[in-house]
Structures are given as structure tokens and as C-alpha cells.
């Protein structure tokens, strides 16, 4: 046997780490991995088949859906439905939770919140997109319908979270609260293989990632922080590099590997922030914390935010702890 560890093998090996070691969470993660491969196949041939462009519908966020948004959503829901371990899926693309109450899923113990395709605006131009997922354990009794309380749990209650990046290579990165591990899809064998064990954000970062076109709409503290990033100072290796792809997954993945801060503040256009708490901020915050970084909404730990609605938004500042803390200081000061 070669030295390769596939995602499937790794999940089984780590099963003992789960507080509820029954194999159900392992199977759920495996199902997500399978759907990710199907979506990857479609993303890869996007220019060749009729999958680019608008689907012609608008989702609950008021965003025009792309065909790949709809396709990815269908694939993940289908995989979770037939897998039998998930009782409800909360997706960016559905106003209401999608309950899976029938067949094998009746007694399912897990809840999945998902952004099936992150970075929609980059699909048509061959720039990296992603998938983000968050997994909770059901709190209501099995056998009856699960409910909103099962879905609207604090980020601290996540039992697993991860993302897939469909980039120059495709990777799946996830945590179950015992560190972060990254797997690269080997297309020749069709398996995600462990390539980035125990990922930790580097000790210091010199990258800031923000949509600076919105500068005039930012809170003053964020404006001042951007000026700080641009100021010359050899001791802190400033000016920092500005890097912004516009797919949260890709921006976070780069910063996780290289160090840096990702910012999506409140703006006058998005007074509560743009990114969604349940399927963008919380799962990425879990990963960033597990990798040794910090995730804040500017004044509070993201994972402690009280979820009130499924599509609730939040400001998000994620990355190296010292960078996020300095940003928080700027928000307090200005
Ligand atoms: P989605 O494609 O899932 O709707 O998410 C888009 C998000 C996120 O990926 C990205 O970080 C952000 O929107 C970009 O927003 P701006 O275009 O406003 O910078
Ligand atoms: Mn969207
Ligand atoms: Mn998104
Ligand atoms: Mn999306």
C-alpha cells in the first residue's frame, strides 16, 4: 500500500475522536465528499457544457442565481438525502430549511447548513469558487420532525465544518474540532488525498483582503485600518499586500496558508454585513480558530453570535489573531 491517505480512510481513522462515535458523522462527511466530486466534475467542464450563466431565478438574498448555484445545491441536497444521516439541510439557495423526514433519514441526527457554491460572480470567468458547510447535532428527539431550534444553534455547537475549493486543484478542508486537515483531489484516482495535515495559520501575516471599492461605505475604524495596512513600516513588514478574489473560500484558503486578514465589514449598502452567519461565517470561523486564528464580527467572537434567522448576516473579520485584534482596536478607537 502506498503512503496515500484518502479522505475516506482518514475519516474512519479519526472516528474515535468524535464524542458520538457511531459512524454517522463519518458517513455524512463522506456523502459531502462525494457530492463535492460531482460538483467539481461539472465546474471543470463549465466552458464546454451549458452550465455557465444565469439560472433566471432570484434567491431569498435577492441575488440572481447562476446555473451552477442551482446545480451544486441540488447535488449536495441529493447526496444528503440519500445518505440518511441528515434530517434537515439549510441552504443559501432556499428560503426555508429543506426537511428530510422520509425513509432512512427519519431518525437522522445531523443538521447541515450549506453554501453550495460560494463565489458565484466568479463562475463565468474561470476563477476559483467553493462550497462551505457546517454540521450540527440534532437537539430534538429523533422519530419526530426536527425543528428550527435544531438549525439555529450557536457556532460553538458545530461538530464539524469545512469548505471545498474548486481551484487550480480541488481541495476539501475540514475540522471536527481537533485541528484542520486538507485533502487534494487526485483526478487520476478520483479521491481526496491528505495533502495538508494539521493546518495552522502562519505566525504572522502580511496580506489584507477586502473589497476596497466599497471604501467610502466602510466604518471609520475599517478605513483607518486599511490606511495602517498601506503605511510603510519595516518592523511589521508593511505595506501589506492587498489580495481579493471575491470568493470567500478562495480568499480564506490563501490567507490560511500564507497568513493575513479577511474583512467583510458592515457597509452603508449592507448595514448588517453581507456574509451569512449560518453557512459562511460560522463554518469558516470554526476552521480559522482551529487553525490558530481569530474570527470576529468586530466586537464579538463570531461563534458566540446568537442566530435568530437562517439567512442572518454578519460582519466578518478573520485571520491571524494579532491582525484581527488590532482591527477590533481600530473599530473601538475611531
Ligand atoms: P455567494 O457567491 O455564495 O453568494 O457568496 C458571495 C460572497 C463571498 O463569496 C465573497 O467573499 C463576497 O460575497 C464578495 O462580495 P463582494 O462582491 O461584495 O466583494
Ligand atoms: Mn449567492
Ligand atoms: Mn458565499
Ligand atoms: Mn453561494
UniProtKB/TrEMBL annotation:
Residues 201-331 form the Fructose-1-6-bisphosphatase class 1 C-terminal domain. The keyword Cytoplasm applies. Its EC number is 3.1.3.11. Residues 6-197 form the Fructose-1-6-bisphosphatase class I N-terminal domain. Mg(2+) 2 binds at residues 115, 118, 280. The keyword rRNA-binding does not apply. Substrate binds at residues 118-121, 211, 244, 274. It catalyses: beta-D-fructose 1,6-bisphosphate + H2O = beta-D-fructose 6-phosphate + phosphate. Its cofactor is Mg(2+). CDD domains: FBPase. It comes from the Bacteria. GO terms for biological process: fructose 1,6-bisphosphate metabolic process; fructose 6-phosphate metabolic process; fructose metabolic process; gluconeogenesis; sucrose biosynthetic process. Pathway: Carbohydrate biosynthesis. Keywords: Carbohydrate metabolism, Cytoplasm, Hydrolase, Magnesium, Metal-binding. Pfam families: FBPase, FBPase_C. GO terms for cellular component: cytosol. Belongs to the FBPase class 1 family. Homotetramer. NCBIfam families: PRK09293.1-1 (NF006778), PRK09293.1-3 (NF006779). This is Fructose-1,6-bisphosphatase class 1. It comes from Sphingobacterium siyangense.
Amino acid at each position: 500500500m502506498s503512503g496515500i491517505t484518502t479522505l475516506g480512510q482518514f475519516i474512519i481513522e479519526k472516528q474515535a475522536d468524535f464524542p458520538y462515535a457511531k459512524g454517522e458523522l463519518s458517513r455524512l462527511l463522506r456523502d459531502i465528499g462525494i457530492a463535492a466530486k460531482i460538483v467539481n466534475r461539472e465546474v471543470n467542464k463549465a466552458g464546454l457544457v451549458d452550465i455557465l450563466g444565469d439560472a433566471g431565478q432570484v434567491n431569498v438574498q435577492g441575488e440572481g442565481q447562476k446555473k451552477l448555484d442551482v446545480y451544486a445545491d441540488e447535488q449536495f441536497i441529493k447526496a444528503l438525502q440519500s445518505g440518511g444521516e441528515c434530517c434537515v439541510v439549510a441552504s443559501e439557495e432556499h428560503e426555508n430549511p429543506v426537511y428530510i423526514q422520509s425513509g432512512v433519514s427519519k431518525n437522522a441526527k445531523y443538521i447541515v447548513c450549506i453554501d453550495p457554491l460560494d463565489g458565484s460572480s466568479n463562475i463565468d470567468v474561470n476563477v476559483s469558487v467553493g462550497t462551505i458547510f457546517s454540521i450540527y447535532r440534532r437537539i430534538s428527539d429523533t422519530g419526530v420532525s426536527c425543528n428550527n431550534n435544531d438549525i439555529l444553534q450557536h457556532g460553538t455547537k458545530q461538530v464539524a465544518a469545512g469548505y471545498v475549493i474548486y481551484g487550480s486543484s480541488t481541495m476539501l478542508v475540514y475540522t471536527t474540532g481537533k485541528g484542520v486537515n486538507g485533502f487534494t483531489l487526485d483526478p487520476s484516482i478520483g479521491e481526496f488525498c491528505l495533502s495538508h495535515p494539521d493546518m495552522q495559520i502562519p505566525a504572522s501575516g502580511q496580506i489584507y483582503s477586502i473589497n476596497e471599492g466599497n471604501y467610502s461605505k466602510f466604518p471609520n475604524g475599517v478605513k483607518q485600518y486599511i490606511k495602517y495596512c498601506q503605511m510603510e513600516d519595516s518592523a511589521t513588514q508593511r505595506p501589506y499586500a492587498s489580495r481579493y478574489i471575491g470568493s470567500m473560500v478562495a480568499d480564506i484558503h490563501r490567507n490560511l496558508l500564507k497568513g493575513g486578514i479577511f474583512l467583510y465589514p458592515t457597509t452603508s449598502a449592507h448595514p448588517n454585513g453581507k456574509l451569512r452567519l449560518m453557512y459562511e461565517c460560522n463554518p469558516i470561523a470554526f476552521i480559522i480558530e482551529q487553525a490558530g486564528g481569530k474570527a470576529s464580527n468586530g466586537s464579538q467572537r463570531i461563534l458566540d453570535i446568537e442566530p435568530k434567522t437562517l439567512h442572518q448576516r454578519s460582519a466578518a473579520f478573520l485571520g491571524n489573531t494579532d491582525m484581527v485584534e488590532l482591527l477590533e482596536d481600530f473599530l473601538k478607537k475611531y
